[in-house]
Amino acid sequence: MDVAKQLLADLKSQGFKNTKVRTSIIEALIKSPTPLSIAEIMENLGKKGLHPNKTTVYREITFLKNLDSLQEVDFGEGKKLYEISSDHHHHIRCIKCNKISDVPMDKDLNSKEQAILKKMGFKPIGHSLEFFGLCQDCQ
C-alpha cells in the first residue's frame, strides 16, 4: 500500500472523513520532492479542479499537524513549508537557487540530540536543524 493510501486508511480507522481536499493535500505533499508552502498546495489543488478557500487549507494543515501526520519546516524566512511526516531527517537548501534536499539523520545523531537535551535538563517539544549552502550547480 502506498503512503497516501496508508495515511488515508489510518485517518479513516480513527473515524475521520477523507474529503477530496484532505486527500488531495496529502497526495500533493507525498508526490512533492520538497516541502510545500500553502500557496503551492493551493496551486496544486487548483490543478485538480479544487478551489477551497485559504482557511480550509490552513484548517486541514493544522488537523494533519496535530495528528503528527505532517511536519512544518521553517527556513527562517517567515514562510512555513509542509511535508508528510516520515523518517527523521533535516534539510539543506541552496541559498542561490533555493533547491531543497533531504538530509537523512542516522541513529547516532538522534542519540546525541537526546543526550544534549538530558544534560541541559530540557524536555523537547520540537527542534529545527536546517543547513544552508550552495548546491553543486550554483557553486
Low-confidence stretches: none
CATH class assignment of the largest domain: Mainly Alpha
How large, in whole angstroms, is the Cα Rg?
17 Å
Number of discrete domains:
2
User: Number of DSSP strands?
Assistant: 5
Characterize the largest beta sheet: strand count, sense, and whether it forms a barrel: 3 strands, mixed
Question: Gap between N and C termini, in Å?
Answer: 40 Å
Shape: globular
Q: What's the CATH topology name of the largest domain?
A: Arc Repressor Mutant, subunit A
Order of strands, widest sheet = 4-3-5
Helical percentage: 40-55%
Instruction: Look at the helices and sheets and give the structural class.
Output: alpha+beta
* CATH homologous superfamily designation of the largest domain: Winged helix-like DNA-binding domain superfamily/Winged helix DNA-binding domain
N to C succession of SSEs: HHHHEEEEHE
Label the CATH architecture of the largest domain: Orthogonal Bundle
Mean pLDDT: 86
Strand content: 15-25%
Instruction: Provide a count of the helices.
Output: 5
